[in-house]
Design goal:
mainly alpha; 11 helices; 0% strand; globular
Amino acid sequence: MLIDPSAWPLLLAAAFGAGVLNAIAGGGSFLTFPALVFTGVPPIAANATSAVAVSPGYLGSTLGFRAELAALPRRLLVVEGLICAVGGVAGALLLLVTPAKVFSAIVPWLLLFATAVFALGPRLLAVLRLRAGRATGAGDAASGGAHPLLRNGGLLLVAVYGGYFNGGLGILLMALYALAGEAHIHTANALKNLNSLVLSLLSVAAFAWAGAVHWPQALVMAAAATGGGFVGARIARRLPAAAVRAIVIGTGLVMAAVFFSR
């Protein structure tokens, strides 16, 4: 596929912005996926190429949260990593057997769903805590307030979604950790980045094996997203939680509206 030289500035800007956004709170594929579609890449190939492009950004942002990850139990990191690996491969294989017309039709709904879950996460968590008779979630920062089976089951479902459609993956992971009782947003961010890296690498391997990736765009965008991930990790520590949430919700709503209008 020949690439119009005028498309490169858009693809590079989208990839760098995606790396920054993923490090802050997720949703970076809300930028890379539409940019690829806009420049002529078919939707399923655009999704696979976008997944490749943002994967190195997860590495950069994960390294930016080394201190937060080091404070968590090693067993927690290993178990959640294995769950995300299995889910990522399953989701990628599901995408590869989905008809292109069907995938194009559900994209805006996937974007809207991911944004809504993230926006409603704190309210849902408050209701769950109230029903459980707990006023706060203090003391549950490392393991989460939810039962491990519920937390891990939810993580598997989110990982399958992430392998299928990378857009909004970070949002759903952040929402999951909020519902699981993770009290500190920076700890949730660290877990989100690490698990996004694991499942993305496995789903990318499946996409590459199936020949669904447009490699020139993917490799150049991956370099830009990596730089954005390092920058975003620095920004994330300085932003208040309310600002982080507003950025992600706003991006999700705009991208969903764009795809509904197509």
